[in-house]
């Protein structure tokens, strides 16, 4: 089966600066794929390249197996839910939802029928004659979604759809979008800078940094096997510690961290110095046989404790999350630091 | 699409009369050969026009673009090379033998052919991927550029070419240099001797004086309106509209009636204080007062915008940091509005440079460039070369100031530091400053009221100031309606010019607004090569003084290939291209309030740019469209500087008629007519804003209607 979207070495330049630099990926039909990265990394440009709102400087873009590189947005079988929703303020909800159908030449009566059914699907029956300004933010977003899916596009694009909603609504809308995508078997490309949001909704995540793809994989793969220092740090905070690697066989290596010796998958790292990503939850304080350290700061956050721990003899400070809130360790205490191997990963190529 | 334009191009060559815009119907009935379509003319040089059309093959975009360009190119070449009296340039005669073939001015056939060629080129380029393959965008772009080149660029170039020629048409660079560096333009005798200074220095001194004073006055008004408790806001808003609807010269007229040798104030002072009567008002003092009355409101609008954008929280922050009122004003408010002051100065400076009517009415022996240009053409001298040289000097001044203004406002604006609305109260003005504001604003308001009082009332008394018996005679002279043999008819002397003005302004209005907003759309929403240059060209016509436009149109459109003088069309065209920047500004102002994602949403839903424009942008911009239409209508009704060169017996205009009455001393009729114009304009403005003011779209309230549009007289 043809992939829904395919990028072949696509570059987008503004003047000399590349916003997107030679990236390639494919998106399978029915998948929800997230483009994740810090602001300015090129993720929104990538989304707009799919939509046809920007045109690639080099490379080829294919949608549903067809080369669309030179086609305008109006000619591509994609639709988009904008960050600002971009509802037409002078049209009511039904007119907004019909807009794309009428533009593609469908008779008004039929178009209104289709639009009504999609509005019902997003729970907005009875709001047809309201103006966008008379709706709440969450309702406006549903209109934007209905307006986009009524065209039954090959690919549906979301540009930071949750950023204009308040924190409590976000989780709810996020789940709604995921449920709708799975019910209708839509192919969705979703842009966000929030890594939790990305992990929660995606089949696959493409992490971008500085106009390039940093890593492309399932949420679990990104978290447990980060391909680079950037990914390790961006997806769930990680402490990055300098270590020495000594390969033992095809997969495993002995990792020396100060006086500690650990056995971990080497993930392609060569003998010599490398970096170890340590999740904050994987640090144990106060178990015997560890590295000597000192608690520098401690903070109580209700559900857990957060510590900053200095390792003796190094400049490194560890960020630690500990579930035990009943016996907090006060700042200044000398502690022994050990690690849970499940939260450790050698970062290759660093 | 392509076939339609190709068909039209053929129609232009084969069916429509090639020559003459107004004549063809008459000529066809007389079976004159000039009225025939191009290919039946027997003029061989027209036949190559068919070649590009044969080249235009569907599916060959490169060839299509080339054919459009070739058609246009040959049209320009043959049109400029062969004039109505033989070769268009002497060297052609030397090459091919004088006198050469002749041809009259181009007509409808040529116009349709040229338009079709532009569109064929646009289609060809779009199919090669230019402008994202959007035919509509590319076509509008080429069309607007073509029109601006024809009606702004070509006339300005004509000034240049006629400046370097003598009056017989020969190339004379020596004469040009002599005229350009003539002491009547650049002389500095007034500094050392008793003679008058050169007209260029006069103009610069006048403009600088008015620029500085208008800015200070405008600032005083802005401070009084925004930073004091004076209940002035509604009154000031009204006063700021007045110059828009006031024909530019009536202020000069009113000043003469107040301060002239027989003026009301002069009489009063002579009678009670034995102050001798003099002619002090004629000359620089009079022009200065008149221009200040006319341009201070513009400076005021600019400064109110700037001052209003200074966030109160900044001033509050300064005060919480222990700064007193005066210190706050000096260290926070003043630096923040300084760029606005420079902008207001430059705008008033340009306005004063370009002003024609006030120096004409009240200038006396004090000459400025704009009036000198006029007298060089209409006076006994009738020296078009001198007029062209003067126009060049004036154009150089205004364009320099215009570029300075753009560079300044482009780089030095602090007003959009925060995007968030701030609550808080502005700091009250320091005491002495407030006193200074009041001392400036209140007397000036009295003068303004007196001036407008005279304008409105002066035409309804026998002789203002001397014999104040009320009379309707003047109104009757200008606007009487009588019953004759054939029923009621308009017998007043002013009706004809009034109706002509209304007609031409109404024709020009939708065209101006459409062209202005289309240009705004292209500038604000599309990216293309040479956008900066395009924007500069489009806005430049704003900086070209009306007198320069007038003289350039005479020079450019008096002879083939494009002959328009004496027609109503040339007046309409001058309205359109003088006022188009108003539409562009209104359009850009409100387009930049409409989020781009609306266009993009429409596009991703399958609508192309024309459909997006029609269904999304135009409905949202409706208030801006109305604003643009109102302003271009009002400006067309009140302008005088450009059209005074272009009117003819058949097409006389209201403003020119009034200037003529004032010129022969019939102040009563002139004032009555001005009052009627002001009332009509005010009614139009009030009516429209009552209709538009109600329409609000949602809570985003994207309305441009309440945005002041800075307008040039």
Automatic annotation (TrEMBL), chain B:
Ranges for domain ABC transmembrane type-1 come to 200-405, 498-690
Q: Which SUPFAM superfamilies match?
A: MetI-like
Identify the keywords attached in UniProt to this record, alphabetized.
Cell membrane, Membrane, Transmembrane, Transmembrane helix, Transport
Origin superkingdom: Bacteria
A Gene Ontology biological process in which this protein takes part is: transmembrane transport
Q: How does it sit in the membrane?
A: Multi-pass membrane protein
Compartment annotation:
Cell membrane
Tell me the Pfam families matching this sequence: BPD_transp_1
Instruction: Kindly give the InterPro entries that the UniProt entry links to this protein.
Output: MetI-like, MetI-like_sf
Q: Name one GO cellular component term.
A: plasma membrane
Give the chief site where it resides: membrane
For this UniProt entry, which segments traverse the membrane? 63-85, 105-123, 135-157, 204-226, 238-260, 280-310, 331-350, 356-380, 387-408, 441-462, 504-524, 536-556, 568-588, 667-692
The reply on keyword Lyase is no
User: What is the annotated signal peptide range for this record?
Assistant: none
Q: Which family does it belong to?
A: Belongs to the binding-protein-dependent transport system permease family.
Name the record gives this protein: Iron ABC transporter permease
Q: Which organism is it from?
A: Limobrevibacterium gyesilva
């Amino acid at each position: 089966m043809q992939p829904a979207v395919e990028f072949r070495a696509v570059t987008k330049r503004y003047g000399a600066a590349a916003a997107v630099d030679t990236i390639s990926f494919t998106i399978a039909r029915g998948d929800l794929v997230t483009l994740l990265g810090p602001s300015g990394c090129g993720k929104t440009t990538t989304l707009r390249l799919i939509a046809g709102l920007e045109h690639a400087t080099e490379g080829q873009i294919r949608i549903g197996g067809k080369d669309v590189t030179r086609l305008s947005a109006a000619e591509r079988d994609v639709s988009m839910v904008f960050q600002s929703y971009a509802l037409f303020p002078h049209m009511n909800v039904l007119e907004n939802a019909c807009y794309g159908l009428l533009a593609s030449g469908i008779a008004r009566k039929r178009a209104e029928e289709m639009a009504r059914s999609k509005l019902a699907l997003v729970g907005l029956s009875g709001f047809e004659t309201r103006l966008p300004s008379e709706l709440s933010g969450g309702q406006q977003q549903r209109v934007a979604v209905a307006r986009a899916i009524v065209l039954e596009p090959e690919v549906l694009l979301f540009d930071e759809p949750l950023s204009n909603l308040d924190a409590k609504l976000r989780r709810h809308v996020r789940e709604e979008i995921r449920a709708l995508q799975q019910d209708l078997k839509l192919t969705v490309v979703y842009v966000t800078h929030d890594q939790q949001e990305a992990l929660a909704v995606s089949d696959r995540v493409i992490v971008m940094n500085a106009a390039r793809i940093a890593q492309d994989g399932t949420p679990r793969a990104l978290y447990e096997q980060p391909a680079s220092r950037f990914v390790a740090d961006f997806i769930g905070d990680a402490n990055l510690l300098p270590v020495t690697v000594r390969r033992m066989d095809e997969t495993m290596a002995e990792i020396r961290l100060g006086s500690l010796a650990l056995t971990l998958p080497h993930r392609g790292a060569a003998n010599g110095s490398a970096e170890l990503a340590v999740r904050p939850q994987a640090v144990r304080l106060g178990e015997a046989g560890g590295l000597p350290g000192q608690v520098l700061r401690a903070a109580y956050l209700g559900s857990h404790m957060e510590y900053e721990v200095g390792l003796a003899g190094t400049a490194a400070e560890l960020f630690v999350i500990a579930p035990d809130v009943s016996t907090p360790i006060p700042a200044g205490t000398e502690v022994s630091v050990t690690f849970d191997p499940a939260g450790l990963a050698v970062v290759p190529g660093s | 699409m392509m076939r339609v334009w190709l068909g039209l191009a053929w129609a232009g060559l084969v069916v429509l009369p090639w020559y003459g815009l107004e004549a063809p119907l008459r000529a066809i009935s007389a079976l004159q050969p000039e009225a025939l379509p191009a290919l039946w003319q027997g003029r061989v040089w027209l036949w190559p026009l068919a070649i590009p059309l044969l080249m235009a093959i569907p599916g060959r975009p490169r060839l299509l673009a080339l054919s459009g360009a070739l058609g246009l190119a040959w049209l320009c070449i043959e049109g400029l090379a062969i004039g109505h009296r033989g070769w268009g340039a002497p060297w052609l005669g030397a090459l091919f033998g004088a006198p050469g073939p002749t041809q009259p001015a181009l007509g409808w056939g040529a116009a349709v052919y040229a338009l079709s060629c532009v569109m064929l080129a646009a289609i060809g380029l779009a199919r090669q991927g230019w402008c994202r393959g959007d035919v509509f965008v590319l076509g509008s772009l080429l069309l607007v550029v073509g029109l601006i080149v024809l009606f702004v660029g070509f006339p300005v170039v004509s000034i240049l070419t006629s400046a370097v020629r003598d009056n017989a048409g020969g190339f004379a660079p020596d004469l040009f240099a002599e005229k350009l560096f003539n002491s009547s333009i650049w002389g500095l005798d007034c500094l050392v001797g008793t003679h008058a200074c050169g007209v260029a220095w006069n103009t610069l001194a006048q403009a600088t004086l008015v620029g500085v004073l208008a800015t200070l006055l405008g600032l005083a008004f802005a401070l009084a309106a925004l930073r004091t408790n004076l209940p002035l806001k509604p009154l000031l808003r009204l006063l700021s509209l007045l110059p828009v609807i006031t024909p530019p010269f009536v202020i000069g007229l009113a000043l003469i009636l107040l301060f002239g040798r027989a003026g009301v104030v002069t009489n009063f002072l002579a009678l009670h204080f034995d102050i001798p009567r003099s002619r002090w008002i004629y000359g620089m003092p009079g022009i200065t007062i008149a221009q200040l009355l006319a341009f201070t409101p513009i400076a005021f609008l600019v400064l109110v915008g700037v001052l209003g954008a200074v966030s109160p929280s900044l001033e509050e922050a300064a005060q919480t940091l222990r700064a007193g009122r005066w210190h706050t004003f000096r260290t926070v408010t003043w630096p923040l509005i300084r760029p606005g002051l420079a902008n207001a100065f430059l705008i008033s400076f340009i306005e004063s440079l370009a002003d024609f009517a006030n120096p004409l009415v009240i200038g006396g022996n004090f000459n400025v460039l704009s009036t000198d240009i006029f007298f060089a053409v209409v006076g006994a001298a009738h020296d078009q070369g001198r007029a062209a040289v003067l126009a060049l000097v004036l154009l150089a001044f205004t364009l320099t100031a215009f570029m300075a203004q753009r560079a300044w406002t482009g780089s030095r604006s602090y007003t959009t530091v925060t995007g968030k609305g701030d609550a808080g109260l502005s700091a009250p003005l320091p005491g002495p400053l407030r006193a200074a504001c009041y001392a400036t604003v209140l007397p000036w308001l009295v003068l303004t009221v007196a001036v407008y009082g005279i304008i409105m009332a002066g035409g309804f008394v026998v002789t203002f100031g001397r014999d104040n018996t009320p009379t309707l005679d003047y109104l009757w002279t200008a606007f009487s309606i009588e019953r004759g043999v054939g029923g009621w008819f308009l017998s007043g002397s002013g009706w004809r010019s009034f109706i002509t003005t209304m007609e031409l302004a109404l024709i020009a209005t939708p065209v101006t607004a459409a062209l202005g907003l289309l240009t705004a759309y292209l500038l604000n929403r599309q990216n293309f090569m040479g956008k900066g240059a395009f924007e500069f060209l489009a806005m430049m016509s704003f900086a070209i003084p009306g007198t320069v436009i007038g003289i350039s149109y005479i020079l450019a459109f008096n002879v083939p290939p494009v002959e328009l003088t004496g027609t109503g069309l040339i007046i309409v065209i001058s309205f359109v291209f003088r006022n188009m920047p108003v539409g562009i500004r209104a359009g850009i102002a409100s387009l930049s309030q409409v989020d781009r994602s609306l266009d993009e949403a429409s596009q991703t839903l399958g609508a192309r740019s024309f459909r997006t424009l029609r269904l999304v942008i135009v409905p949202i911009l409706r208030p801006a469209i109305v604003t643009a239409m109102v302003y271009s209508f009002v400006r067309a009704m009140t302008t005088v500087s450009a059209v005074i060169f272009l009117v003819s017996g058949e097409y006389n205009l209201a403003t020119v008629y009034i200037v003529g009455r004032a010129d022969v001393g019939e102040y009563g009729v002139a004032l009555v007519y001005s009052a009627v114009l002001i009332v009509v304009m005010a009614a139009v403005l009030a009516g429209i804003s009552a209709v538009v003011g109600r329409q609000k779209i949602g809570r985003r309230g994207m309305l441009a209607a309440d945005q002041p549009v800075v307008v040039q007289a």
